[in-house]
UniProtKB/TrEMBL annotation:
Keyword Transcription part of the UniProt annotation: yes
InterPro entries linked: HTH-type_LysR_regulators, LysR_HTH_N, LysR_subst-bd, WH-like_DNA-bd_sf, WH_DNA-bd_sf
Protein name, entry field: LysR family transcriptional regulator
Any Gene Ontology CC annotation: cytosol
Length: 321
C-alpha cells in the first residue's frame, strides 16, 4: 500500500469513474485500474461496486477511504512543517470552538490572523464539549477552546476564562437578571440539557450531587440552537453562560437569572496535544488566539467573562506581552 494507490482510491471514489480519475491524476487509465487492483489484492476485499453507471465504494472501501484522507492530511501537514521557515508561518491550522463562544470569537480571530499571517489557512469547527475533546485527541484539531476540566492524558490546557452560569427561560417565565434563583429551585424546573460527560451538564450534575438534589431533565439535545428554540417555545429551561444568550435577552427573546447557593461557574482553556509537535503556524495561531480572547474580555465584547491571567497560558508554552 503506497501513496499513489491511496490517492487513486480517493480520486476514483470522488469521480465514480476510472477514466475521470486518470485525467485528474494525469496518468493513463490502466495505471489507475492497476493501483486499485493492487489495493484489493493486498487487502483481500473488493473496494468498489462496479456497474454501468460507474464505481461506488463498498463498506470496506469506505473504511479505507476515511483512513486514506487522514493519511493525506498528515502528509500535507508534514510538508507544511518542513517547508515553513523561521521568517514566515505557513500551513493549515484547525481550531475547535464551543458553539456558545463561536459567534463572539470567530470573526475577530480570523480577521486578525488574515492580517498577521496571510499564508496560514485557518479552519474553524464548532461542536459540543465532548466532540471538541474527541477531535483534538484523534488529531482532527491542532487547537481547541474547551472546558478546562476536560483535560486527558497527553493534553496540555491553559485556564484562561471564567464565566458565571445563568438560568435561562422563555421571556414570559418570570426570570430577571435582578432576581437570583437558588440552585435547588432551578433543579426543580423542567430542564433541557445536553447528555455529555463534559460541559455544563457535567458541572450541573456535580453541583447537584453536592447539594443533594436531582436535576429535572425533560429533554436532551447537544445543539445550542435547538436548546434555545425549545426554551423559546416554552418546553423548559436551561443553564448557559451569558455570552450564549446576551443578544437574546437584550432583544427580548429569552429571559435570564443568576444562580446562587451555589453560584455556578465554568472555566475555559486552550488545549493542545503535548504528544504532537506543534508547527510554527500552530504556535502563531495559539498565541494570537490568546491575545484576541484577552482583548475581547477586557473590552467587554465577551460579556461577563473574567480573564484568568497570563501564567496559565505559559503552561502550554505561549508567552506574550
Amino acid at each position: 500500500m503506497d501513496f499513489k494507490q491511496l490517492r487513486a482510491l480517493i480520486t476514483v471514489a470522488e469521480t465514480g469513474n476510472v477514466s475521470k480519475a486518470a485525467k485528474i491524476l494525469n496518468v493513463v487509465q490502466p495505471a489507475v485500474s492497476k493501483q486499485i487492483k493492487q489495493l484489493e489484492d493486498e487487502l483481500g476485499v473488493s473496494l468498489f461496486f462496479r456497474d454501468k453507471r460507474g464505481m461506488e465504494l463498498t463498506y470496506e472501501g469506505k473504511i479505507l477511504e476515511e483512513h486514506a484522507h487522514r493519511i493525506m492530511d498528515e502528509i500535507k501537514v508534514a510538508r507544511e512543517k518542513i517547508s515553513a521557515t523561521s521568517e514566515m508561518a505557513i500551513g493549515t491550522v484547525t481550531v475547535g470552538l464551543l458553539a456558545s463562544v463561536s459567534d463572539v470569537l470567530s470573526s475577530i480571530l480570523i480577521g486578525s490572523l488574515e492580517r498577521l499571517y496571510p499564508r496560514i489557512e485557518v479552519r474553524i469547527v464548532m461542536g459540543h464539549a465532548e466532540h471538541i475533546l474527541s477531535w483534538l485527541e484523534r488529531g482532527d484539531l491542532e487547537i481547541a477552546l474547551l472546558y478546562a476540566d476536560a483535560a486527558v492524558a497527553e493534553m496540555e490546557i491553559s485556564k484562561i476564562i471564567e464565566e458565571n452560569l445563568y438560568l435561562i427561560g422563555a421571556v414570559d417565565c418570570g426570570l430577571s437578571v435582578e432576581t437570583p434563583v437558588a440552585f435547588s429551585d432551578a433543579m426543580a424546573l423542567p430542564l433541557i440539557f445536553a447528555n455529555a460527560k463534559y460541559g455544563i451538564r457535567y458541572l450541573v450534575d456535580q453541583a447537584a450531587k453536592r447539594v443533594g438534589v436531582r436535576p429535572r431533565v425533560v429533554l436532551e439535545t447537544s445543539a445550542l440552537s435547538v436548546q434555545k428554540r425549545l426554551i423559546l417555545e416554552g418546553y423548559g429551561h436551561t443553564i448557559l453562560p451569558w455570552v450564549a444568550v446576551a443578544d437574546d435577552v437584550k432583544n427580548g427573546r429569552l429571559a435570564a437569572a443568576p444562580i446562587v447557593m451555589p453560584t455556578l461557574t465554568r472555566q475555559l482553556g486552550l488545549g493542545v496535544m503535548s504528544s504532537r509537535l506543534q508547527s510554527k503556524a500552530t504556535q502563531c495561531v495559539l498565541a494570537e488566539m490568546l491575545l484576541c480572547i484577552k482583548r475581547i474580555v477586557h473590552t467587554g465584547e465577551w460579556p461577563e467573562a473574567r480573564w484568568l491571567g497570563a501564567r496559565e497560558a505559559e503552561a502550554i508554552g505561549v508567552t506574550y506581552s
